[in-house]
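Support request, please re-run this one:
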Amino acid sequence: METPPELIDFTAGHARSGDLDVSWIHGSESAKHNADPDIQVHAYDEHTFILRQNMAVNYEAPFMFLLFGSARAVLIDTGATASPDFFPLRRVVDGLMETWLAAHPRDGYRLLVLHTHPHGDHVAGDAQFAGRPGTVLVDADRDSAWEFFGFTGASGNTGDDGGGGFGGGASPADVEPAQVDLGGRVLQCWPSPGHHNAAVTFYDPHTGFLLTGDTVYPGRLYIQDWPAFVRTIDRLIGFCSTHPVTHVLGCHIEMSRQPGVDYPVFTTYQPDEPPLQMTVEQLREIRRAIAEVGGRPGRYVFPGFILCLEGA
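Re-run finished. Output below.
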């Protein structure tokens, strides 16, 4: 008689703490002599991995997240480089999955690939997973992603409706979170436009991670749609008031530890980075900054982030 696969308890009733005491690879003075791995892998816990792309490969150096459940894993975002020779994301993910399955044997384990939004530095590695056995790759464009999540009540069409570009349907701020079940580990996901009209936020109750993509991170927050961005920040703060959020995790670090000082675009050496993780209080700081800026186009510098509001 076959032994059933190990049941992993992802529902402890509280977010479990892990390890975020990590020195992230942050480039080097000479890209030619960079000795960092193409992809840094950090284990937050045995079921949760954070990956960062090497700055010498692409200056964006985005972060990606690999979360394991009892039935399948999810990879959130696929980085900024397509070539597996320079950015071997699939090989790294395959290796992590092989190691995890050796410790937690089970048949028919699958991989789901999702995204925070469709910008190129978050989807470039998608092709590495096309045709991978046991894999569902969801395109990051709004129609495909929102259909997968079931955000059918929200309109994402840009229009002059005075409501942040959402006409002909419910605002994404009103859409109930979708659930993505990895097998006992159930993520909540909801539309979060503002930076991009297809942006999605993920919440993982197991770790308490709030994964915000490019909506919130220690860097330049590029805002495409101001009213939608304001509603998204309000929704994030409201969510945090009713759920145990341990860390707010975006996909980049662009600030330095000197308050209000960021590294310029195209920088490939950032030796004085702050932590990736932000706090719920920093979300509130962003909300106070929103009130101060008042929707006027421009670049507004604050100690831990910069609001970059596109002109009308």
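The CA atoms of residues 18 and 116 lie 23 Å apart. The helical segments are 89-103, 120-123, 142-149, 226-240, 280-293.
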